[in-house]
Amino acid sequence: MAISQTIHNEGLGIFYARRVDPGDKPASYLISDQIPEHLLPYDDPSLIHRFTRPEGKTGKLETTIRLEKIRCAACVWLCEQHLLQIVGVEEVQINYVTQKAKIIYFPKSTSLARLIYEIERIGYAAWPFEPQLSIERSKKEKRNLLTRLGVALLAMMQVMMYAWPSYISGSDITAEYDLLMRWASWVLTVPVIVYSAGPIFQSAWRSLRIFPRVHLLGMDVPIALALALSFLAGTFNLVTGLGQSYFDSITMFVAFILAARFIELLARQDAQSGAEALAKQLPATCEKVINYEISEEIYSVPVVNCYPGDILRVSPGRVLPADGILLKYESIVDESLLTGESKPVHKVLGDQLFAGTYNILNPILMKIEAVGQSTRIAGIASLLDQALLAKPLMVSLAEKWAGYFVGFLLICAFLSSGIWLYIDPSKAWSVLVAVLVASCPCALSLAIPTAMAAAQGTVTKFGLLIVRSHVLEGLVKTTDLILDKTGTITIGYPELKEIRNLRVDYPREAALALAAALESGQQHPLALSILRLATEEQLILPKLNAEVKNQMGRGLTCGTYQLGSATWLGINQTSEDAQASQYGQAHLRDEKGLIASFIFLDSPREGLNELLQVVKDRNIQVHLISGDDPKTVSWWANQVGIQHFRAGCTPEDKYEYVQNLQSQGHFIWAIGDGVNDAPLLARANVSVAIGAGAPLASAGADAILTSASLESLAKALIIADKTKKIIQQNLSWALAYNLIAIPVAMFGLVNPWLAGIGMSCSSLIVTINAWRLRKI
Amino acid sequence: MESLYLLIPLSLILVGLLALILYWSIKGGQFDDLIGPGEAILMDDDTPKDSSTNYK
């Protein structure tokens, strides 16, 4: 593209001009001391794991950087282009809403410090994205904007008070008092211009500087122009004593603009927290063993201070803070977050352990292999970031329009002002200011991002984490819904459903109570379901007269009682029993023989009926596609009222099923959780992965259901409808407003004060309209 | 009307004071959580404790 070529050349030009030794090739230039002191630490090898992740197999690194001082789409575009022309950078994606940049680069050719420095060079600030740090920055950003807004509001109110006498009886005021009040207004306007509107001027200046290369003007340019011109004109008039001073308009204008931006910031910061919440699932502190060889003494340290090679201790019931290898003490670990396998995994010495999994049985010692951004769970979080970074087509179109619009607007402003100079010079000035101020490319550019951000924030709150932004648009267009069975419409872990083979004269409650007593304190899913049922039936558990011993993988022993698998107990399982339970069984026996058999079954996921109801109301066809056996699948299909179903499907079968429907013109929405659903989810038009499912499924999905209930999806459908309506409303308003306001201003019928209100109100209206999406 | 020569500068000083107070309260984090304090009222425990009674 011609523009990027221009930037490329221009950019290199700057480099050559600043370099110490002009003859250097790019590689050695990077080694030379161009990166400032305060950024060098980012290249420290020990920090590489914290801020970057390996990408692909060719030695590339991927990092996410939080950008600041981004004011409009042109800023985002410039950063993208500028980063892309750095040697060694392969891919750059920046999202305006979350202000995060995902960069893939070759560590041999460029470095993290270099990337950050380059962004600083073109006038922005950048920080490597670490969840805790970004919360700090968001807080500062919000506080700063709020302070500036507060100053502007205070000034606006007071200046209005000084201007009030002149509104009511302008001609009756003595000259000295009029002068006094106008000077007081001036004193209050100066801090508003300098402090509250300061960033607007900075961003406009930046935008003008890069205009020769980019041919795209930021939204802040007309605003800054209007403010500067009115302030200078007003001051001039005040000093010379003729004409109007515009200080009341200026302060009000700035106050409204900052108010609109503050509301936008709140919506934007809301939308961010979803992805960060996932990364927050890791503990902040952990127990480190300092001198492993010598003693097992532990210190509590923050996880960020741990590095690969450190030894950690993880107690039972705690979450593992890092990826690593098990060094000591076998245990059982719940890996449901990562693998979707609800049955806990038995870990022996040397086995892989993953951050975010949950230690069940014994305290363990592990050696860290990956920490921070290089853990598997961070990989999942980065997938979320990546998806958030893929722009939906609609946003880009609006940005392009906004860019051309600003250029067109400036031409109109100066043209109309020039014409007025001939007709009636006194009006030329005010017409110029009015045209600049009345038009609002802001509303156009704010229309879609604010609505999407607000909708995403709301949807995240009730448990649907949107990974790719087309989800909300796609839900509205859906014609068919494909559901997986195990783990999706069913919970995927066992519930104690039946107690069979009771010994004659042995009460059922006694058997259950005894089993519960044996299982007390155990974390195994089968144990938990026994305990749940016992608590539900409010049974009093008998006191055991011996210690309970856990034979890992087989069962529990207590005195003469045994509770465990059929083979270990030496019981013959009837084929009927084996069929009836999907999750296996446990048998209770004592020295005399079998007391009872416990059958565990799966149960439907909460909210399933609500979801199916909403879906049927919208005439969406529902399909149940599963890898499970035909009997179970047809039983479930009949149970919930699904007509189309297929059993025994391999991942390829599922994929083909979707393909067939799509070739017939259907728009598919798929929900799944397992590794075997991944191709299905990737292929479907819109897909949702169950949060507790396998990460591979999440990688292929467009959204992740973090809540336990499917009702969130029913709510998401409603929000999707609302979002579409609100975006349409916003766009129509922005266009209509501009079509009316600009001609009116060009004809000199609007004074700057009125135009200022119009512009700020129009932005506010668009943002507040999007705010309506925050409640369902 | 001469009092205006005193009152208007006084009002300027007052606005300055208000801006300072605003700055202080924002810096102290009072505006960070706009939703929490509203919810917190509902979560107050009204039963008086034996050892210490805190009336706010």
Give your account of this protein's structure.
The complex is a heterodimer of chains A (776) and B (56). By secondary structure, chain A is an alpha+beta fold. Chain A contains 28 helices and 27 strands. Chain A has a seven-stranded mixed β-sheet, sandwiched between helices. Chain A has a six-stranded antiparallel β-sheet with strand order 7-6-8-14-9-12, with no helix packed on it. In chain A, helix 7 packs parallel to helix 10 and helix 14 runs parallel beside helix 28. The longest helix of chain A has 39 residues, at 131-169. The radius of gyration of chain A is 33 Å and the shape is elongated. By secondary structure, chain B is mostly helical. In chain B, 57% of the residues lie in helices and 0% in strands. Chain B is built from two helices and no strands. Chain B has helices at 4-27, 36-43. Chain B starts with a helix and ends in a 13-residue tail after the last helix. The chains are: A alpha+beta (776), B mainly alpha (56). At the A-B interface, helix 6 and helix 7 of A face helix 1 of B.
Number of strands of chain A: 27
Low-confidence stretches of chain A: 1-33, 271-280, 386-396
Biggest sheet details of chain B: none
Largest sheet of chain A: 7 strands, mixed
Quote the average pLDDT of chain B. Answer: 76
Net shape of chain A: elongated
Strand order within the widest sheet of chain A? 15-27-26-25-16-23-24
Which two chains form the greatest contact, residue counts included? A-B, 20 and 16 residues
- Number of helical elements of chain A: 28
Taken from the alpha-carbon principal axes, the silhouette of chain B is elongated
From the structure above, extract its key features.
heterodimer, A: 776 residues, alpha+beta, seven-stranded mixed β-sheet, six-stranded antiparallel β-sheet, 27 strands, 54% helix, elongated, disordered N terminus, B: 56 residues, mainly alpha
Q: How is this structure best summarized?
A:
The complex is a heterodimer of chains A (776) and B (56). Chain A has 28 helices and 27 strands. Chain A is an alpha+beta fold and 776 residues long.
